[in-house]
Amino acid sequence: MEVQLLGAGQEVGRSCCVIKYKGRIIVCDAGVHPAFSGMAALPFLDELDWSTVDAILITHFHLDHAASLTYVMEKTNFKEGKGVVYMSHPTKAVYRYLMSDFVRVSTAGSDDNLFTEAEMIASFNEIQSFDFEQEILLPPSDTSSASVRFTSFAAGHVLGACMFLLEIAGARVLYTGDYSTEEDRHLVPAKVPNWERPPDVMICESTYGVQSHEPRLEKEAQFTGLVQSILKRGGRVLLPVFALGRAQELLLILDEYWAEHPELQHIPIYYISSLAIKCMDVYRQYIHTMSPNVRAKFARGINPFDFKRQDSFIRPLDRGISKLNDRNPCVVMASPGFLTSGVSRELLEKWAPDPRNGLVITGYSVEGVMARTIMNEPTEIHALNGGAKIQRRLSVDYISFSAHVDYTQNSKFIDEVMPSHLILVHGEVNNMSRLRAALRTRFAERKNDVQIYSPRNVETVKLKFRGERMAKALGSLANTVPTPSTTVSGLLVSKDFSYTLLSPADLREFTGLSSSVILQRQRLALSVSWDLVRWHLEGMYGKIAQGKDAEGHLTLRIMETVDVKLVDKHELAIEWVGGVTNDMIADSVLAVVLGIEGSPASVKKTTEDHPHNHHHPH
Length: 618
Ligand SMILES: [Zn+2]
Known about the structure:
This protein is an alpha/beta fold. It has 4 domains: 2-211 and 403-462, Metallo-beta-lactamase, Chain A (4-Layer Sandwich); 216-398, Rossmann fold (3-Layer(aba) Sandwich); 471-511, no CATH class; 519-608, TATA-Binding Protein. 28% of the residues lie in helices and 22% in strands. The strands form 6 sheets. The protein has a 7-stranded mixed beta sheet. The model has no long low-confidence stretch (mean pLDDT 90). Zinc ion is lined by residues 60, 62, 65, 157, 178.
């Protein structure tokens, strides 16, 4: 098996993982790199002939996992092939809004946009969607007989996010995508599925390397305490977030906290994102896929994602900061989370000089973006337009509400999966090498035989493993339990991905199949005598008994397998039951018979047999 990363190899961003096995090619994720724009943000797409791809599976709607999909579908030769694109129902629903927004944002002030809205919509209609834990069998390939199926499992992380268990010709690969095993207010955490057999290969995210998250309740208390203290000193709280994902969790936390603290209820919580407001419909629609907490509330008639309801303290705003009243203390949640542009950046620049204000960063920031730079608490920041220096006096805090696993959670999950090969992706080089070292030690101490890889972009990892296959014995074959090293023989019946071993007599009962034989018959013109044929065959196979068949034809049975019959005065028939050995014997019989006429021995034999018929001129 070959695994090649076209992105997210020793970096966070532009996830794109190519898996090749037995002539089938599956790609997991097609993202962009958030720190780059235009073509530079794409994965290394030229490394692959996209017309040969069987399927593209998208784990979740985040841009670094899904935003180059339109480019692949519309601007590479993917369309010339038969590849199918899959994502979960909620992912597909959010993806559409998110991509419209992506086109709008990346087109603004740039002529380097990757694709148009029209191209996005054209390809969108080709995407197939599935439910969690639904098993999907890929259409067969023209060039490979290997069958491929996949099943998706909830990955936590964001609405609709899943991990994939891929099975290609019996080899099993688990691709985690971004995942979280932590309980939260609205998502179902990732769990190791109950499988018959662990995956051979696990391709696993490593965003947080060996770092640890604080326990959830402590972290929440720290967060709400911090927000409250900023408000108390008369400040404004800026929460830069991605429109979708942790933002929904933070809104639920704040809404709940406000409900419990009447003294805060006069302070508005603004949520500025036209995109997120559009997507709230999707959140409302997919409540059945969320945590028991959300479902229980919904059953009581409370929709936690309906911020327009009477008792909600959240005020959604969908037109930037024009309608925002920030003269007094307030909480504003705005995107983008990286503070690279847009509303969150605008507010940062406006509020930075006032020391009463506070910035709380809650998510993972990639290298090179403002959200990362400002964590070092510089005294000045640069304005996005014009680059003027702005005093930074507002407080900066970082409380990780990341929806990615930390070291404890990741290593526990890997332990439970226990693959033979572990490929680390989606992590910055230092985080990844620390994780790799920590896991090595962990496995070595326990003598677990796990190979760990952390390939760079475009590097190909070649994996060798025995694709172990299991066959179930059925019927009379299963009457006796075999002891080790005994041989069990029967018919091996393969159907899709399961194998059954049974006695031929049980075939019809257990499989609905029946056995049949193929009788082969070859007819030949006979120009020599029957006796001569017999003489030649005996010369080759030894003494042959002559008998008669049901129709009374003279018959010679050769090696108990092939019958040579005299069916007419000048016609021979060769008959046998088709099979590998029988066919070979029949071939040799045929060669002998066809060679009779031209053989010098025939002339000699004919002379001996019929001396009286010959004309003697002397
Ligand atoms: Zn993600």
